[in-house]
Design brief:
The structure is a homodimer.
Chain A lengths: L1 E6 L4 E7 L17 E7 L3 H14 L3 E7 L8 H13 L7 E6 L1 H13 L6 E5 L2 H7 L4 E6 L2 E8 L5 E4 L8 H18 L1 H15 L3 H21 L14 H11 L6 H18 L5 H13 L11 H9 L4 E2 L2 E9 L2 E6 L3 H10 L2
Parallel strand pairs in A: 2-9, 3-4, 3-5, 5-6
Antiparallel strand pairs in A: 1-2, 7-8, 10-11, 11-12
Helix pairs in contact in A: 2-3, 4-5, 4-7, 5-6, 5-7, 5-9, 6-7, 8-9, 8-11, 9-10, 9-12
The structure holds nicotinamide-adenine-dinucleotide (2 copies) and zinc ion (2 copies).
One nicotinamide-adenine-dinucleotide binds next to α3, α4, α5 and α9 of chain A.
């Protein structure tokens, strides 16, 4: 097991990465202010892992309730969030009862937001069970639900007390979800680490075959980069925005097709190709660079073309992006492979061109 | 006009108290990061004051949208909150668009919570239009909506950028609402300032006749006390809990009868009598003290008796209180008139006795 530390102005917390961690409740116990926990999971993950976690906590005297949500991005909404509140109140959860997110990014984002709001703030812990959640969503304290008109529009910055990434849980993950997680891993290489990008090009086959050492290195390097960026800019006033590489396009795809049609990671993958293409239009990347991006994304089993949507729909959806400032959408583009930068505003004609070519 | 400053670890903001402030947008403008605002009001307050505010802001180049919610505590729920989000998204509100709460505590609490969640945090300003909101809810950053099973169960600590209390707006306030506000004013005297309590006893008639100087002093002294307590304990880990004098009982009344049946201030008033009676049972207050509390509350036009509810219902409703710790309800009681203290756990038999005598 390795442990990273995320140090923020008001708090700090460990990110444990390793094997067999689910039942090592010694990692969890120091973060529970009282021996009461409420586990939030979903219909897919609960049958696989909930019982083991509950047993392990129960054996150490922690009173546990659980709530099992329907599975899917389309349930990342207020109605489903309310099921968490209903369950907390039915179980007399207190302000210091710890919420435990046991699931992928959807469960993690919703549990974190529920914890942020329940009695104005209850403690919570992340046990991410997808690659995407282990490398990205469980770290950094962004929590949210979707609004029909925009992805992650309603949420909070609210940090977990600990992140426990048990690599063993990835064994049951479907291939398509593994690939979706690799999209965010590739993102880190593209936005800030050319060496890691090259490592990914060399190790993509091993990763897709779930080579244990390769996966653990990818999770570790991703979490290191995420933790460093979040430590520098918790509330996204600066550098943290770079983590949204591919996401302005990606969120438009997700909202435009209806949440859940494409996986988040798939939408981000196509979004990163669009970002690379836009960067090439500005002269920041060469054609060969864009090709390298496309090849790596394809090698990860991810789409390199966005779905066809009318240009006006793209523009309208992107105008709701959280990175809009003074009416202008701020895009994260690539100065070079391994170095992202913000570009405020792109010509409508440039946008139409790259959308036409890449969808 | 007088201005108080609330100084917190991460932020500070002014509380302006005076006459004719609604159209003095110079008080507002410094707090708008971009010249875009979204005013949230309700069906009752909007026809009275929205146009004037919008005109004044428009004249200074601020682009304003507005959303008008149904009026009432029973709408302090997720469905109504969503109307704010719908309106913000329809109006392309950005992360730095300022939300302005123009209304009483219900509008203030909901607008603040919407601001806390919209794109994970937008700026907001309070323009309280009820006495209760001017002396209490607009100051200190507690925001929330109700859950069917508990008052203010879902919310956030999220501070406004400014509070603008225009005394002139109280002219249109119904008498019953004025009295409800006086409940929170009396609360400050009871919990921490015996001199202010004596002043209230002498000036209650003037206050109810809306004597301008008396009202402004009551607002000012209340805000001073609230600001001092919040400055000391923003997140309610200690002394801030004292502001909940009468509220554990009061919230049970509100939830038990259905939100909106009793006004919040009325429920708190009856709750303060119960707290005084419980304090007497513990030997902290004498019978004459309890009588003084009853007399002042009655003089303010407020109920001194709680509605009849079965004892088990009281206990169940109070077990959902945010001040529950380790399964025990923590009551705010009175050591003496002018000095509150926390008491963890009260005998069920004691509770039943005081509930029987005071309802
Ligand atoms: N908060 C952040 O910073 C952040 C960052 C990136 C993504 N996100 C969010 O994360 C979400 C995507 O997360 P995700 O990709 O994990 O999706 P997900 O949570 O929907 O999980 C994907 C699928 O895998 C299943 N699953 C989870 N763990 C499993 C396991 N161990 N074995 C078998 N099946 C398993 C889930 O039930 C689901 O069907 C999006 O909503 C996205 O917006 C948030
Ligand atoms: N956040 C906090 O710290 C805090 C503190 C105390 C109370 N509260 C909350 O505040 C709420 C109660 O606030 P409230 O008493 O202001 O109730 P309210 O907001 O419902 O207002 C009372 C009534 O007066 C009307 N009104 C408002 N201003 C008016 C005006 N100037 N002229 C005529 N009518 C006017 C409203 O439309 C409403 O019908 C409760 O939900 C309570 O939980 C919050
Ligand atoms: Zn993402
Ligand atoms: Zn109150």
């Amino acid at each position: 097991m390795i442990t990273l530390d995320l140090i923020l102005p008001d708090t700090r917390y460990p990110i444990h990465i390793g094997h067999g961690l689910l039942e090592q409740v010694d990692l969890l116990l120091p973060h529970l202010p009282i021996p009461k926990a409420a586990i939030v999971s979903n219909e897919t993950v609960a049958p696989l892992y909930l019982h083991r976690l509950q047993q392990a906590l129960g054996a150490r005297g922690v009173a546990c309730t659980s709530v099992i949500l329907p599975d899917g991005e389309r349930y990342k909404d207020w109605q489903t969030l309310n099921l968490i509140f209903d369950s907390l109140l039915a179980g007399n959860a207190e302000r210091r009862t710890t919420l435990i997110a046991l699931g992928g990014g959807v469960i993690g984002d919703m549990t974190g937001f529920a914890a942020a709001c329940y009695q104005r703030g209850a403690p919570f812990v992340q046990i991410p069970t997808t690659l995407l959640a282990q490398v990205d969503s469980s770290v950094g304290g962004k929590t949210a639900i979707n609004h029909p008109q925009g992805k992650n529009m309603i949420g909070a910055f609210y940090q977990p007390r600990a992140v426990i990434a048990d690599m063993d849980l990835l064994e049951t993950l479907p291939d398509r979800e593994l690939s979706a997680g690799l999209a965010e891993v590739i993102k880190y290489g593209l936005l800030g680490d050319a060496d890691f990008l090259a490592w990914l090009e060399q190790n993509m086959a091993a990763l897709r075959q779930r080579d244990s050492a390769a996966l653990q290195y990818a999770v570790r390097r991703s979490c290191e980069m995420k933790a460093a960026i979040v430590a520098e800019d918790e509330k996204e006033n600066g550098v943290r925005a770079l983590l949204n590489l591919g996401h302005t396009f990606g969120h438009a795809i997700e909202a435009g097709l209806g949440f859940g049609a494409w996986l988040h990671g798939e939408a981000v993958a196509a979004g990163m190709v669009l970002a690379a293409a836009a960067s090439a239009e500005l002269g920041w990347l060469g054609a060969a660079d864009v090709e390298r991006v496309r090849r790596l994304i394809a090698a990860a089993g991810l789409p390199v073309k966005a779905p066809a949507m009318p240009a006006e729909q793209w523009l309208k959806l992107m105008s709701h992006d959280k990175k809009v400032e003074a009416g202008t959408v701020r895009f994260v583009l690539l100065r070079s492979l391994g170095q992202a930068a913000i570009q405020a505003g792109l010509d409508t004609s440039l946008l139409e061109r790259i959308l036409l070519e890449n969808s």
